[in-house]
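call fold(seq) -> tokens
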Amino acid sequence: MKINLILKLSIIFYFTNLLGADKEQVISKVISYTKDQKTPPTEYILSTFEDKRLQLDMDVIKRFKNKPEKIKTYQQYKKIFFNKQRIGGGVSFYKKNKTLIARVAKEFEIDPIVLVAIVGVETNYGLKNAEFSVINSLYTQALKMPKRSSWATKEIAELLAFCSENEVDPFSLNGSYAGAFGYGQFIPSSFNKLSIDYNRDGKKDPYDWEDVMGSIAFYLTENGYPKNDFNFTYKSKAWKAIRTYNRSDKYANIIIDLRNEIAKNIFLLD
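ret:
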């Protein structure tokens, strides 16, 4: 049943009086961001914010203060990802998924090993993708991190839209401290706008490798990755497209370095 605007505002006022000013602002903004969309309904938003599972996570703030790409030199940062396990894992992942990776790379005219390197850095080829509650991470940023509050509030709206449309419990999604989720580690807005149903089964699945690899390729091409470009030098078009994934020079460089090492080891095995 539709709720008219006055009743909606009354409900918001009632709940937010109980919840406090900070939470009130977040709720109001989430509803405002989604007012022109079919989903999520206002009732869905309110019930999510009333759920006892919604909690602040102070570890999120600590992780932001200690982001390795900010506090470490490139050589220190590189050691996190550039090791035998990550390189060998990339070779194994490529061999196991060679047909899929080749198909995606051909369709999007993109380097196949870049795709491998990205999932290697982002989730260790799917092995590490669920350390934090996504909604609690975003909620913590919205309430406790002023510089990220507006961004995080919009991402909560995007997350609830995805969950409502796909009948996913928002508290069941775990991911990074920044609020990214799935094997490709898309933030909610990027997932809603730039992920694709590559296997055409009727849904965009963040934990299905076909959809994940297709979505990463689509994301890169939408962000300026040139067709059939293997120029990965600093500030090349391909490098800039890769950088959009994390907005960090060090990140882009480690993707390229890992890509090159995985490619070299694949070549040696072949």
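The chain has two domains: 5-61+130-175, 82-129+183-269.
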